[in-house]
Amino acid sequence: MTSSAGNDRTIERGVGKKKSITNILFHIKELYSLKLAKNDFNDYELSNVCELPEYFLQGISMDAIRAENLKKTFGSVSAVDDVNLSVKEGEIFGFLGPNGAGKTTTIRLLTGVLTPDAGTVHINGIDIHRHPLEAKMQMGVIPESSTVYGDLSAEQNLQLSGKMYGMPRALREERIDEILLRLGLSIKKRNPVRTFSKGMKQRVSIACAIIHRPRVLFLDEPTSGLDVQSRRLVIETIHEMNEQGSTIFLTTHNIEEANTLCRTVCIINKGNIVAQDSPERLKKMFDTTQSVEVSFDRTVTRDLFAVEVILRAESCGDKWRLYTDNPDLVLKYLVGRAERESLVITSLTTSGPSLEEAFVQITECV
Amino acid sequence: MMEVPLFLRGILVITGKNMRLYYTKPPVLMFGLLFPLFMFFAFFVGRHLDLTTFFPAFLAMMLFFTASSVGPLITPWEKREKTYERLLSYPVTQDSIILGDVVAGAVFGIGISLLVWVASIFFVPVGVTSWGLFVLAFILGTLSCAALGALLASPASDSPPNVMIFSNLVRFPLIFISGIFVPLQQMEGWALTLAYCSPLTYLVDLFNAAMSGRSVFSPLFDCTVLFVVSVGFIIVARVIQKRNMMKGM
Asked: Which domains, and CATH codes, for chain A?
């Protein structure tokens, strides 16, 4: 199937040398041709009404996001300093860093909201600073705070987003119903967003970013400050979008979230990328310590854990977390000691090295 | 080349969004509708002035206030509500946002001023001697005033009240030096020099040429000045907003 936009592009190449007035008329005609008929749905999915780069059409694999030598300074402060990163198509990429490390500035540079002082950004092979509109058609962005229009209803916010991406009315309405139902907003779809809770606003924000099924989705701290239900819904939506083929670029403070969601994790500190690898490799690289969590039927003191094999013991509520290089020996010790002291072990779990520990070590040693 | 239709579509969608969201905001209603009406009552009513003579100036003032009242509100409001960042992440550029704001202001100005003109036909015996100039005055007048509105929104502020105060500091003096209350022919010295510096002077003059056939400058000159001023305002607004963005959100 060939989209009408595609036909017009072919014609467009032929009118390059015509007089400017003819060009303007042609572009106005093309503008209206972007309102695709509903049966062009698949073409819309494929190209998002954008001209795809030649090598993509030839099926050569490429990075969904590629940033090279990205720099941004605000006055004397270097917010992003020579950042290079590449995100493979279909990947969930976690971007971590302490407060003020440059995460939000980087995401703003990658999404074309800010212009870098130096460096380039390519989204699906399109240079975002040379062809910002085409590149932005490929992406959906969920900014740090739930940035939706409070005076508009959820439905109107989504209508606006759909229009921004040039979606035809029928498709827009179909997607709006589908997304609002999926995100549990159908009942309140006509209420002004300003009356919504923070979690609901965030869901509207997400809906606005995914209405056109973007090929690259940027999320800046999407679960920050949300309740458990909203958080789960956001995580499920990220998974669904990824399963449908979207590349996900996720910044988060929640290390556990990055650990469970992301295939690759990148850590930025003071504007520089300090580590980039899979979560498991990062854990092993920076932390070989494992832990055992144990709780008993009655309160015990720290003295119980004063043995050589336990490196450190931390009280965590009604449990104790014991750090060790040899969890097997610790388990044997705990079972033996519990028998001797007539203690009942009510829970016992072992954990490997944590990404949080690796994150702390990486960001503290730089 | 694919960017051109996307660019135009961005302007249209932003204009629609602005019309829906900002036309009914209290600062727009206050400074765009009530103020010019109050000025009319304060200066024209009960003073035995020849309304037929002053009507073109009043229409220019109405158009000036309405068209320039929307622009200053939009950008600071969006920055405060943090919707500006999302807007920039859509397939639009800062230029489409500025032009969308200008078009929204211009449409507001044309709509309200036309309404006032149509309503006044029943009360004031004012005719139109040149329909072409009348239409041009409306188009170029709203364009230049809306562009001024967009320019006034350019300071890097996310406080709508501050920007509205600043915009009124600029707009109010203009109505006193632009031949609205004192005809240009009666001005002299520094007052006349100031009048030449105000784009509103040329709009008043163009409305005079269109409605009474009498004008100080040639209509072509008035049109040229208004067009150049409109383009100038948009370019300066663009430069300031780009510079602000270099400093961050």
From this structure: 4-57 (no CATH), 63-277 (3.40.50.300), 286-365 (3.30.70.980)
